[in-house]
Amino acid sequence: MMADGWTVSGGLTASGGLVVPAYFHPAVDPAGWETLARSAPAVRMVVLNVASGPGEVWDTAFIEVVNRLRQAGIAVAGYVDTNYGRRLGPQIMVEIARYRKWYGTDSVFFDRVASGIEHVARYQALVASARALGTELVAFNHGTYPDPDFAEHADLLGTFEGEWSAFQLVDVPSWVHDLPAAKFFNLLYGTPARMDMAVRTIADERNVGSMYRTDRRAPNPWAGLPADFPNPVRPGGRDGAAFR
How many angstroms separate the CA atoms of 148 and 229, rounded? Predict the structure, then answer.
């Protein structure tokens, strides 16, 4: 924490920083990847999604951009869809291994993660296998608040993904406030920059340490960075985490 109270974050040791779903190709938007690398103090994790996973063949266009992000101290996570616990563990591990071998990722972003307590053991096993392969940072993107036992097995919990209208209606369980704000990230789309202060206020109240907001809309709001990326990093949550 700097003396003026603003958090500088990046890499695996950051107490805050943005979780950025970068679902766009370097050949289509090279400027977006350049912006991510230059924004390292504000970014904790960039999620690499080649083809709803690592794809079936190696795409060398991602090598240079991933290297630049990692050299800047940003964790790069391979996107892995778990289909709410329906996908088999061996399929998932093949994808994690491909990300590491082909693109040099150091982290994993598990998407569509189940939220019920009956699924905790399954995800615990997936994380243990991922760590055995060398995974450093693990994110669970539930899109809702899961059973609190999930917090023991992931470094980051995604507890919302959606638009502003739904974001306002979220009920926050009390256990959330027992953990550091840096444990939680939200992905908010279809929300213009003029809403930023309202978003930040709600995120503070909910103890969300990473609030990524974009004005882009479905079907793929993560197909590029928002026009105002990134906002200055500022105090947030109870431990000074960064907000977007």
Answer: 32
